[in-house]
């Protein structure tokens, strides 16, 4: 059972739903996000639901230069954390990225490089302890490049490969590395996307994350049917795939 939890991207709708469940278990939290106002509202709600304590850090996590400061604050307030959920990211404009490398570079930093910066520090901490759970939200978009979002998919796919390597490195230490691959989820990030039958609520994904961490899973598709969908997509021959509009 998770007791002391770091949540990076704590105002994410999915992260909030997972945190609500942990709060009911009396967890302690260190919450990081960009909006002070939203963080304070979420922290208050979690304490109402049973959270033992909530420590807050207002920070844009894409700014890697501030990560040293962040970990200094964590070590002084919740040094013995046992679970980490990394839930932040951006769904950029694919067309703008096609026109300007700067947009692509920004997306790769937001969704991959800044996360790797955090994971490098976290992995070293847990490796020394010989325990801990690292849970990271990637995406089904990282399973195969598609013209509609291949920049975002590239970042998430790279992150999944990094997590695979990290899992291989830490496999004998007792540290669990979980790659969380949600499909279409109804959140503010997808507000401008037309909703279809495959969309699910953030609460369903949040519950799935908690269950996966409890069971010490290593890869989870949420909901479950995305594992089948992506297996089919990954196995479409390239000659056919490149003609599809996905």
Characterize the structure shown:
The protein is of the alpha/beta class. A 7-stranded parallel sheet has the order 3-2-1-4-5-6-9, with helices on both faces. The protein has a single domain (4-241), classed as Rossmann fold, CATH 3.40.50. It has helices at 13-24, 36-49, 67-77, 94-99, 101-129, 150-170, 202-214, 225-234, 238-241, and strands spanning 4-8, 28-33, 53-58, 83-86, 132-137, 175-182, 185-186, 200-201, 219-222. Helix 1 runs parallel beside helix 2 (36-49), helix 1 (13-24) packs across helix 7 and helix 5 packs parallel to helix 6. It starts with a strand and ends in a 5-residue tail after the last helix. The chain is built from 9 helices and 9 strands. The protein is globular, with a radius of gyration of 18 Å.
């Amino acid at each position: 059972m998770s007791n002391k939890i770091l949540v990076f991207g704590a105002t994410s709708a999915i992260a909030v739903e997972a945190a609500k469940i942990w709060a009911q278990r009396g967890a302690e939290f260190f919450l990081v996000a960009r909006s002070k106002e939203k963080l304070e509202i979420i922290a208050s709600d979690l304490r109402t639901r049973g959270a033992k304590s909530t420590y807050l850090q207002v920070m844009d996590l894409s700014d890697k230069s501030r990560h040293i400061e962040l970990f200094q604050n964590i070590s002084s307030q919740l040094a013995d954390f046992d679970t980490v959920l990394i839930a932040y990211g951006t769904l950029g404009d694919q067309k703008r990225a096609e026109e300007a490398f700067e947009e692509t570079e920004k997306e790769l930093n937001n969704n991959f490089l800044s996360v790797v910066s955090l994971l490098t520090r976290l992995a070293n901490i847990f490796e020394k302890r010989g325990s801990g759970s690292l849970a990271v939200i990637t995406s089904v978009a990282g399973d195969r490049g598609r013209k509609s979002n291949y920049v975002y998919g590239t970042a998430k796919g790279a992150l999944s490969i990094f997590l695979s390597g990290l899992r291989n490195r830490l496999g004998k230490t007792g540290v669990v590395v979980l790659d969380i691959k949600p499909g279409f989820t109804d959140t503010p990030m997808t507000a401008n996307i037309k909703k279809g039958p495959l969309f699910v609520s953030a609460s369903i994904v949040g519950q799935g994350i908690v269950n996966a961490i409890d069971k010490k899973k290593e890869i989870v598709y949420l909901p479950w049917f995305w594992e089948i969908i992506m297996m089919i997509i990954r196995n479409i021959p390239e000659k056919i795939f490149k003609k599809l509009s996905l």
